[in-house]
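Task: sequence design from structure.
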């Protein structure tokens, strides 16, 4: 099976995981045609903050005319049931846990179900990039950096500059699919099926040095315990599973 669906949400903010735009595209690896597509705007709950507006360009005036969440949920459920589920179990996203949690929050808010949206098998391109691209080569793993690093076109920076003035869920999905399929090419030919990729993404690895922050580059064992404990309290384990694994195995600290 080489069919997957990729999705992304623009939200009211990091601390307000309610979607104002949802985009999902179904496609086969290596095929430029889409097998299915969902893109809807959602009326926010309350007012959008200036911080959110400058990220995605959706103003409160514009958002006031968006359909309410209950209406979009009906469409989303129908799309997942009729278009996604018959074709694939593999969900792809960049820092996918954030988008899963956003849709979970969205569904549960309108249905009173605690976990209304869960992927059967998820593949995080952020995680995949961290495992396949050395930090010293790329500098950081945000979606734009991954897209630019992996893109082989000479004018890739011009393309990126022209399309990334503001964040857009559909554009993020398209870029994530590009990144995903470029990352697949870095894997051994016999490990490029989606089942192996999903397994590869979930396998933790031991780190020797701190990968980020003010102690970046320091041996893990030499990082102050107070900083390690602070990291654990932040709840960032989903983004840095290798670091969490190393902390638990090497230092004996648990989240």
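Answer:
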């Amino acid at each position: 099976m080489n069919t997957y669906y990729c999705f992304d949400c623009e939200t009211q903010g990091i601390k307000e995981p309610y979607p104002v735009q949802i985009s999902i595209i179904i496609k086969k690896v290596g095929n430029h045609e889409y097998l299915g597509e969902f893109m809807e705007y959602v009326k926010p709950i309350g007012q959008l903050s200036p911080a959110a507006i400058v990220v995605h360009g959706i103003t409160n005036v514009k958002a006031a005319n968006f359909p309410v969440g209950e209406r979009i949920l009906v469409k989303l459920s129908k799309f997942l049931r009729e278009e996604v589920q018959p074709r694939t179990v593999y969900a792809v996203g960049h820092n996918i846990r954030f988008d899963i949690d956003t849709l979970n929050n969205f569904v549960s808010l309108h249905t009173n179900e605690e976990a209304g949206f869960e992927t059967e098998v998820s593949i995080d391109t952020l995680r995949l990039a961290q495992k396949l691209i050395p930090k010293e080569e790329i500098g950081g793993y945000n979606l734009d950096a991954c897209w630019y690093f992996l893109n082989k076109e000479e004018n890739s920076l011009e393309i990126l500059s022209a399309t990334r003035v503001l964040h857009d869920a559909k554009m993020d999905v398209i870029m994530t699919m590009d990144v995903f399929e470029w990352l697949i090419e870095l894997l051994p030919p016999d490990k490029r099926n989606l089942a192996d990729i999903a397994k590869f993404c979930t396998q933790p690895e031991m780190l020797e040095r701190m990968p980020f922050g003010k102690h970046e580059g320091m041996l893990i064992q030499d990082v102050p315990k107070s900083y390690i404990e602070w990291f654990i309290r932040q709840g960032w384990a989903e983004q840095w599973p290798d670091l969490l694994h190393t902390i638990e195995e090497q230092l004996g600290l648990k989240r």
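The radius of gyration is 19 Å.
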